[in-house]
Design brief:
heterodimer, A: alpha/beta, FAD/NAD(P)-binding domain, Guanine Nucleotide Dissociation Inhibitor, domain 2, 3 domains, 10-stranded mixed beta sheet, globular, B: alpha/beta, 6-stranded mixed beta sheet
């Protein structure tokens, strides 16, 4: 294998999470020499996806590290070894792609146009599938029924109307609710222009706003709260947080086809995007190296001012030992090599302690925690994936929301403590993440492992009862892990106020939102601009190599690559 | 792009994903560029690190459209992503017959394919740089292939001779049920034969139809869940413009 020792780079990127992978692509196609390293043996970092065997190895690693230096802790796996019956059990390890990043991507997300213009979606490298329906769980015990065992609870999954036509056609809603719902949906459609209605409620709880302004009885809040995908209990979900999110949901429906507003990347969520982007970066001349991280970084004694060197990876690799070039940084790799670079970029878990660093995405974020679980079941759960209209694609994803208190054992009373909601994103076998006829359930709730685990477990059980499939779906495998977010480790580093002064750029840690944040793209663009300086034009817009404008992809012999 | 397209239009056409594997500088890209460029645009500059090349292969009964994925250099530090192997129906594992270690590496890639790729994948083992071992046959071709040019390492510059015998490599290929060829990307010797052999070896049942035959059963689909996937695909190019374009349909 070639040696990296002594090589020069414009940019060293540490970690292959989605932000780093997109940045590597953007920079390499903008002519920068990019060395992209990851200490893991797999792509994706905190957004990776695993086969069953890789998942077990990952869980073991997380437990060994005890949560140090990573966002993950409290990981465990449970397998159902007693599975019997007529249905197929757990398939071979590689038949599964379990994702740490099953995020929903709204069709209005800024990520999608970037993936299209950077040609990541060309030639079917990257496929997206529809998330068709949102369901809300209601598990009220039947009146007069004092037995609280699960089977006796009349559990329902109610489909959330997918916009105004759905509300109109819905037979379960009474006329009054329908009317106020329609009124609300009309308002959300242009809430920005109607501050008089919500401005005074901005910081207040969203349920109170619904009650005061729209006379919505509390009992009918659940579907609207579900659309916010808020990680917090209702009383902590503010109106200013909820409104844009409901608006985003509604405005996304129909953008890429009838009947859906959100999509998921096929074959493992964001992990797939990290792989496609890393490969595209390599096509642009970037060099990808797994199993080798950035261990240390030092500034050259004589720090020279910004000199955007016209580097490309090929040349750099063939001229080893020229460490006297005008690079600002000396980077030590885990493999013992020393490389020279003008910039080093990564997430805090991937970056060595630096004396100065610039944190991208200035928005302060509170530290937060979530417990997540991944469950494989031996049923297609077909009732969760109805075609939402005649012309819509077959959905491969569905969302089931368990509202606050819906799962509490002492029955929902106003006095029981508010719990955060549980969000379950269900992926069908169509995603390629499990064999056909099975499903993968990605659940999360904003609680630490100790209190979250029983909640997630009962959500999965309630979901499997609530779908009312026959035969009853069986759990084949499940894993659980706690994930932390929020930036904690800016301890030793002086925060620099411009990228150029710091030379070491830090991306924020992955956030815990089930919905992909638009910050991903804006963070990548900020880093790209900082590094490109005056040459920053046309972010992530690449031509097909033969200049056919994109339509000619299918013709033989047409290729695209670095200019 | 003239001649191959207008030949016998009504034959069924299917796409086949083919991945390249092998040590750096054995001539992976140049084999493909020879195969693809030979048919049209012979003067086109070789492309280093192209993402995709596509080429049709006409068989008597059908047309196979190869979607050829290049490693983009990711093999240099053993950093190929799982998405590279996924749903590949054919693989070209290339070694350099003048470099014994490259066959060792090729065997490693074959093992990796058997571990990572779909069970029914057709693998062709190809010993390249035959021209270096044939005293007579090598008429120099000026547009010799990009990153495969042997000059880089400087290991075996002076005495260039065969280091891997045909017999040994063939025996290994037979053992593992691989197609086997020795080629020269430089002279073009045996290059199109490799691709034709692969096209012939792909079982009819594992072909996902181009426009027409949509049925794609078989183990591969069952394992990867790719079977019903096509109709669930969301077309991101559909936004705003007319759908008649069929931008990324398969």
């Amino acid at each position: 294998m070639e040696s990296l020792d002594g090589t020069n780079w414009d940019v060293v990127i540490a970690g292959t999470g989605i932000q780093q992978s997109l940045l590597a692509l953007a920079l390499s196609r903008s002519g920068k020499g990019v060395l992209h390293v990851d200490r893991n043996a797999y792509y994706g970092g905190a957004e990776a996806a695993f086969s069953l065997q890789e998942a077990e190895e990952w869980v073991e690693k997380v437990e060994k590290q005890g949560g140090v230096d990573t966002y993950f802790s409290h990981a465990s796996i449970r397998k159902n070894l007693e599975h019997t019956g007529e249905k197929a059990g757990l398939g071979p390890s590689r038949a599964y792609t379990l994702s740490l990043s099953p995020n929903l991507v709204y069709t209005r997300s800024t990520l999608l146009p970037v993936l299209v213009s950077s040609r990541c979606t060309a030639n079917e490298q990257l496929g997206f599938q529809a998330v068709g329906s949102w369901f809300v769980y209601s598990g009220w015990a039947a009146p007069g029924d004092s037995d609280t065992s699960t089977t006796h609870i009349d559990s329902h999954l109610l489909r959330v109307p997918n916009g105004r036509e759905d509300v109109f056609a819905d037979t379960t809603l009474d006329l009054r609710t329908k009317r106020s719902l329609m009124k609300f949906l009309r308002f959300v459609g242009e809430y920005e222009n109607q501050p008089e209605i919500w401005e005074q409620h901005r910081k207040k709880a969203f349920p109170a706003f619904l009650l005061d302004q729209f006379k919505f009885p509390t009992a009918s809040h659940a579907p609207l709260l579900a659309l916010t995908m808020s990680p917090d209990p209702p009383s902590e979900t503010s109106t200013e947080f909820a409104l844009p999110r409901i608006a985003r949901h509604l405005r996304s429906i129909g953008l890429f086809g009838a009947g859906f507003g959100a999509v998921i990347p096929k074959f493992g969520g964001l992990a797939e995007i990290t792989q496609v982007a890393s490969r595209a970066s390599a096509v642009g001349g970037g060099v990808n190296v797994l199993r080798n991280g950035a261990r240390g970084v030092n500034y050259k004694v004589q720090q020279t001012p910004t000199r955007p060197s016209e580097g490309d990876a090929q040349r750099n690799l063939s001229e080893p030992g020229s460490g006297d070039a005008q690079t600002a940084l000396i980077v030590q790799l885990d493999g013992g090599e020393t490389v020279y670079a003008d910039w080093l970029v990564g997430q805090d878990a991937d970056l060595p302690l630096a004396t100065q660093k610039y944190t991208i995405g200035s928005k302060p974020r509170r530290p937060s925690v979530a417990l997540k679980s991944i469950t494989i079941v031996d049923s297609p759960l077909s009732s969760l994936f109805p075609r939402t209209s005649d012309s819509s694609p077959q959905p491969a994803g569905a969302v089931v929301v368990f509202p606050s208190r819906a799962l509490s054992s002492d029955q929902a009373t106003d006095t029981s403590p508010e719990t955060p909601p549980v969000h379950v994103v269900v992926h069908s076998g169509d995603t390629g993440e499990c064999p056909a006829g099975q499903c993968v359930l990605y659940a999360s709730t904003a609680l630490p492992a100790s209190s979250g685990l029983p909640l997630l477990d009962s959500a999965i059980v309630a979901l499997l009862v609530g779908v009312q499939e026959d035969p009853k779906p069986c759990i084949l495998f499940s894993m659980q892990y706690q994930q932390q977010s929020g930036d904690t480790s800016s301890v030793a580093a002086a925060a620099e106020d411009s990228p150029a002064a710091a030379r070491v750029l830090q991306f924020p840690s992955p956030d815990l939102d089930v919905v992909l944040s638009d910050d991903i793209v804006s963070n990548v663009e900020t880093a790209w601009k900082g590094i490109m300086g005056d040459d920053a034009v046309d972010f992530m817009r690449f031509e097909a190599r033969d200049g056919g404008g994109g339509e000619e992809d299918e013709d033989e012999g047409v290729s695209y690559g670095p200019p | 792009m003239a001649d191959s397209t207008q030949a016998s239009a009504p034959k069924p056409s299917s796409s086949v994903k083919l991945v390249l594997l092998g040590e750096a500088a054995v001539g992976k890209s140049s084999l493909v560029l020879r195969f693809v460029n030979n048919d049209f645009q012979p003067n086109k500059e070789p492309t280093i690190g192209a993402a995709f090349l596509t080429q049709k292969c006409q068989l008597p009964s059908r047309t196979i459209k190869f979607e050829i994925w290049d490693t983009a250099g990711q093999e240099r530090f053993a950093s190929l992503a799982p998405m590279y192997y996924r749903n590949a129906q054919a693989a070209l594992v290339v070694y350099d017959i003048t470099k014994a270690s490259s066959l060792v590496k090729a065997k490693h890639w074959v093992a990796e394919l058997q571990r990572q790729a779909s069970p029914g994948i057709v693998i062709a083992l190809v010993g390249n740089k035959l021209d270096l071992c044939e005293e007579d046959g090598t008429t120099e071709t000026p547009e010799d292939a990009g990153d495969a040019a042997p000059a880089e390492g400087g290991d075996d510059e002076d005495v260039v001779a065969r280091k891997v015998s045909f017999k040994d490599a063939k025996a290994y290929a037979d053992e593992e049920s691989l197609l086997f060829f020795e080629t020269s990307a430089k002279t073009g010797h045996n290059v199109s034969e490799v691709f034709t052999a692969i096209a012939n070896a792909i079982p009819e049942t594992s072909l996902k139809g181009g426009r027409a035959a949509a049925a794609s059963g078989g183990t591969q689909a069952a394992i990867s869940g790719a079977g019903a996937g096509q109709e669930s695909r969301v077309n991101l190019n559909a936004r705003g413009d007319n759908k008649a374009q069929e931008g990324c349909a398969c």
